[in-house]
Each structure stands twice: as structure tokens, then as C-alpha cells.
């Protein structure tokens, strides 16, 4: 029998000491991870190198493996693009992936539990990367950001992850997410402090904007389109801030420290060359939009992805009713499905203690990864916000994105159970719609 001071080590005391020792080891591992130590021994899959074919393609485009990245997501097209900075300071697309699954419909996320994949401009920092995800690998996109919070939008744990299963996230195959994760990992090791994610409902062309001109989300999409257009013109991620509860882009009157999201916007101070380029771009767009609008007005409006799915549910409901089966009195709808349970969590149980968000802290809107001197000479420099110290899901309270996170040493947050999503997917695959939706 052992002793602790003058006390014999009973079974109960031995167990407490053992648990305390294990907790200490876990805390040390988490602290090491927050400080950037290697995670090779924890998750070898997070260290998988990019395929040589992609490395050769980067070299041909004038990129290095550690140069900064940016990600664009398009819901309707179901695509995720990885862009990388070239030697001339501009970005070029290096890889495009078909999104395996995204949930909800076209439009932004409003409340936790609506199972809606977010749209907007987000920031990802090192502490948002999760090499021990329940869904192979993942990273938190940073929802809610400053815009979301000031407009009362709620939710958490919104990810890009593997396993091809999603309720509010952008889900990829394991092979795809391994490459996307590697792009981010290498960029961080090259010195990038944060990369930008631009999540759009669709490619914001004149034809698409004309198709959706009567959608209730159109004013929100027009606001996103300004950032989309500025990137199309400069091929440099725009500086993003939030004031007057809206996104503003490349406003040089707003310094690196940012501005309160509900404060009045200062006078826009875009450089003359950029302003003139933007006006020229908009003139061309308006001409194309007018033509597309006339053309689309003669055609039936294109159904949305959610509309097509809902039509299939209604057809199944009608057939079941005709067969005399017991179904609901009203046709099914995808939209009320989330509204029925407004407090249901957004399921992406890939969060660990390292990536679980804590209370949000006010912060200016996200900074671009590119420094002014990296922008091509012919384009005006777009100021970048200074790096900010890192809590989590953003290692730093994002310079304008927004969730603050768990500093090292804080009590770990228990991850949600992944079984919920897996069970839901299994049910959806094997049960009639009225059972899946609880009718």
C-alpha cells in the first residue's frame, strides 16, 4: 500500500490521482497544440502532403507550396475553389472540388438549428483547424462573424469537413478535405496568419443575378456581390469590414483596428484606380444584367435546389395519400422542418476542446492575407489589417470575423456527439419521408 503524506492510498484516492494525471497530460497536449507544436503523433492524416501533380501545377503558375490561399464556395454550382497567391501578388485558382453535401437552401444562415449552410465573408485562423475531427479533418469557417452577430444571427460549429455528411456545413469527401486541409496547413506554415472564405449562393454573374432578382435574399446577395466583383477585378481578397450592420469592402477610411459593426460607416476611401475599375466593371455588368433580365422574364423561373427537393417530397406525399396511407393533412415543406425545432443545434460534431468557440468578442471585420506591397503595381494597394493575437475558433479574435475562442488553459468544451448526424443520414436513406420528418 502506498502513502500520500500520512494517508494510505486507498482505491478511491488512487483513482483520483490517476484521473488528475491523465487530465494533466491532456491539458499539456492541448496547450502544445494551441502553441503550434507538431500534431504528427496525434493525427498523421493532417500531415498528408499535397499530390505531386498539384505541386507541379503550383510551380507552373508561379506559386509556392507555402504561399497564401483563399477559398470560394458556390452553393448552387456545388463547388469549392482554392485560390493561391502567385509571385506577382495576384491570386489564381489552383484546385476546384465538387462539394459532396451542403444543407439547407440558397440564402444566409439565420438561427441555430435551421440546418442552413452560411453565406458571407469569413476568416479562418490556425486554431480553427481541427486535425482530430470526427469527420476525418475539418476547419471552422468562423460563423457567426461580425455581420452575423450584429444582425442577430446565431449558430456554431459550422465547418468544412470530410465524411460527406452535413447539417449546416459544407461537407467534402475525405480525400478532398485532406487536400484542402493541406493547402491551409502549408499556407499557415509559410506565414499566413488567416485566410478568407467567400461563401456565395451562386456565381454572381449577370444571368444568375437576373434569375434571382425577385428572391427575398436579393438585397443581401447584392451586398455580397460588391466583394465578389472587387475580387474579380483585382484578384486580391478584399479587405472586409462591417459598419451600419452591413459589409463594406476596401474602405481605406477604416484602419486595421476596425470599426463597431453598428457604427456609422466613414466616407469610403477607395483609391481612384480601383474606383474607376469598379465603375467600368459595373457598367458592363448592368448592360449584361438588362439583357439577361429581358430574357429570363420570358422564361419560367429556374427552381432552386431546395425547391426541387420539396417538389419530390410533395409528389411522394400525394402518392402515399392516393394509396390510402396515413400521412399528414398538409403537404410537406422543407422550410418548416427547421422552424419546428428552433433550438436544435447545428450538427457538425467535429469540434474539439481546441476548436470549440467561447463567448464572442467585439472585433473589426476580417483582414485580407495579402499585404499592400504584394498587390500588382497596376492596381491600387488594398490595406490589410494587422494580425491579432489568437484565441479560438479563431486563434485570434478575428479582425473582423468573429467568434472568439478558447485560450490555452481554458476548460475544454465537450464535443457534440457525431451519432446524431449519422443517425439522421441513416434515417433519411432508409425511411419514408413522413417518418424522417416526423409527420
Which key phrases capture this entry?
11 helices, 5-stranded mixed sheet, alpha+beta, 13% strand, disordered N terminus, 14 strands, single chain, 439 residues
Report on the structure:
There is one protein chain. This protein is about 35% helix and about 15% strand. It has helices spanning about 10-35, 50-60, 145-150, 175-190, 205-210, 220-235, 270-295, 305-320, 335-340, 420-430, 435, and strands spanning about 5, 5-10, 70-75, 80-85, 90-100, 100, 120-125, 130, 140, 160, 170, 195-200, 240-245, 245-250. Helix 6 crosses helix 7 (about 270-295). It comes from Phyllobacterium phragmitis. Keywords: Cell shape, Cell wall biogenesis/degradation, Peptidoglycan synthesis, Transferase. InterPro entries: LD_TPept_cat_dom, Transpep_catalytic_dom.
Question: What is the gist of this entry?
Answer:
The chain has 439 residues and is of the alpha+beta class.
SSE inventory with pairings:
Layout: E1 3-4, E2 7-8, H1 11-34, H2 52-60, E3 69-74, E4 79-85, E5 91-98, E6 101-102, E7 120-124, E8 129-130, E9 138-140, H3 146-150, E10 159-161, E11 170-171, H4 174-189, E12 195-200, H5 206-211, H6 218-234, E13 240-243, E14 246-249, H7 272-297, H8 305-322, H9 334-339, H10 419-430, H11 433-436
Parallel strand pairs: 3-12, 10-11
Antiparallel strand pairs: 1-2, 3-4, 4-5, 6-11, 7-12, 8-9, 9-10, 13-14
Helix pairs in contact: 6-7
Biased composition (Pro residues): 378-392
Active site: 161, 169
Domain L,D-TPase catalytic: 69-200
Amino acid at each position: 500500500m502506498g502513502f500520500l503524506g500520512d494517508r494510505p492510498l486507498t482505491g478511491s484516492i488512487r483513482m483520483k490521482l490517476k484521473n488528475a494525471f491523465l487530465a494533466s497530460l491532456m491539458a499539456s497536449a492541448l496547450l502544445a497544440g494551441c502553441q503550434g507544436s507538431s500534431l504528427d503523433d496525434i493525427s498523421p492524416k493532417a500531415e498528408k502532403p499535397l499530390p505531386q501533380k498539384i505541386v507541379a501545377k503550383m510551380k507552373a503558375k508561379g506559386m509556392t507550396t507555402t504561399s497564401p490561399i483563399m477559398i470560394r464556395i458556390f452553393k448552387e454550382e456545388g463547388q469549392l475553389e482554392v485560390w493561391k497567391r502567385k509571385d506577382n501578388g495576384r491570386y489564381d485558382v489552383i484546385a476546384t472540388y465538387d462539394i459532396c453535401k451542403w444543407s439547407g437552401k440558397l440564402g444566409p444562415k439565420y438561427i441555430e438549428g435551421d440546418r442552413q449552410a452560411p453565406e458571407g465573408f469569413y476568416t479562418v485562423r490556425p486554431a480553427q483547424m481541427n486535425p482530430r475531427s470526427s469527420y476525418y479533418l475539418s476547419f471552422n469557417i468562423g460563423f457567426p462573424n461580425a455581420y452575423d452577430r450584429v444582425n442577430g444571427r446565431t449558430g456554431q460549429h459550422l465547418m468544412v469537413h470530410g465524411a460527406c455528411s452535413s447539417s449546416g456545413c459544407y461537407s467534402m469527401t475525405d480525400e478532398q478535405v485532406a487536400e484542402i486541409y493541406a493547402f491551409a496547413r502549408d499556407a499557415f506554415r509559410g506565414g499566413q496568419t488567416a485566410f478568407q472564405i467567400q461563401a456565395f449562393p451562386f456565381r454572381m454573374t449577370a444571368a444568375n443575378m437576373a434569375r434571382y432578382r425577385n428572391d427575398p435574399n436579393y438585397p443581401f446577395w447584392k451586398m455580397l456581390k460588391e466583394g465578389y466583383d472587387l475580387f474579380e477585378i483585382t484578384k486580391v481578397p478584399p479587405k472586409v469590414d462591417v459598419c451600419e450592420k452591413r459589409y463594406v469592402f476596401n474602405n481605406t477610411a477604416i484602419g486595421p483596428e476596425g470599426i463597431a459593426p453598428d457604427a456609422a460607416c466613414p466616407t469610403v476611401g477607395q483609391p481612384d484606380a480601383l474606383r474607376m475599375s469598379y465603375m467600368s466593371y459595373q457598367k458592363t455588368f448592368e448592360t449584361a444584367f438588362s439583357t439577361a433580365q429581358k430574357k429570363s422574364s420570358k422564361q419560367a423561373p429556374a427552381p432552386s435546389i431546395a425547391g426541387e427537393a420539396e417538389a419530390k417530397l410533395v409528389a411522394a406525399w400525394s402518392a402515399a395519400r392516393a394509396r390510402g396511407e396515413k400521412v399528414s393533412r398538409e403537404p410537406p415543406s422543407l422550410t418548416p422542418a427547421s422552424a419546428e425545432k428552433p433550438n436544435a443545434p447545428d450538427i457538425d460534431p467535429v469540434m474539439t476542446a481546441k476548436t470549440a468557440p467561447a463567448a464572442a468578442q467585439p472585433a473589426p471585420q476580417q483582414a485580407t492575407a495579402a499585404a499592400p506591397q504584394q498587390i500588382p503595381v497596376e492596381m491600387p494597394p488594398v490595406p490589410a489589417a494587422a494580425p491579432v493575437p489568437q484565441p479560438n475558433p479563431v486563434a485570434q479574435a478575428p479582425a473582423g470575423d468573429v467568434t472568439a475562442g478558447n485560450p490555452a488553459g481554458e476548460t475544454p468544451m465537450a464535443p457534440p456527439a457525431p451519432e446524431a448526424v449519422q443517425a439522421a443520414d441513416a434515417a433519411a436513406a432508409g425511411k419514408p419521408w413522413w417518418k424522417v420528418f416526423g409527420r
